Amino acid sequence: MYFTTIATLAASLALTSALPLSPPLNTASLTFHGAAGAQYTLSVPLDGSTTSTNNVLSISSISTDGFDVQNNCKIHAVDYTPALVQGPPNTWQVGPPQTIIDISCTSGGSPSGQVISIELDGAADAKYFISVPLGGGPVYTHNALSISQVRSTYNIPNCKFDTVDYAPAFAQIASGVWNMGPPQTVRSVSCPA
Fold this sequence. Notes:
mainly beta; 2 domains; single chain; Gamma-B Crystallin, domain 1; seven-stranded antiparallel beta sheet; 10% helix
């Protein structure tokens, strides 16, 4: 009986260690920065699942090793969804600074068909970028920055800009550069094919 128990236990251990491991999960490493050099880093899955921060630090910026936080992540903060403004390379300023409760990110696969890039510029070199599929639905900016200039190789006046105040007017000032008036927050952009 003692031999049977040991043999059964050994067989069970052999089968358990032979089970295949789950496939590796694609993740992004995000560093959340607060005041006075305080920070923490999370490895966030890129499958859209929610990752809790479990940290009450008030965050003023997020940095990565090249992952586009602004276009591929959704942030749930203690007050309301913060504006993300691209700062130095691979860094996004969080406005207003606040505690981030959780974050979910996707790998950022682009939709089928042609996609254009649009740079939206505010005051003091603040700007952000969005990718808009031609002929697709609106792309939401999730950014409260007041926009006064737009840059793209696409003819921007053909696009529909959903803004917080009035329908904007565009004046082309250089190749691929339009002033937008009145300056205001852009909620979403859609462009025809």
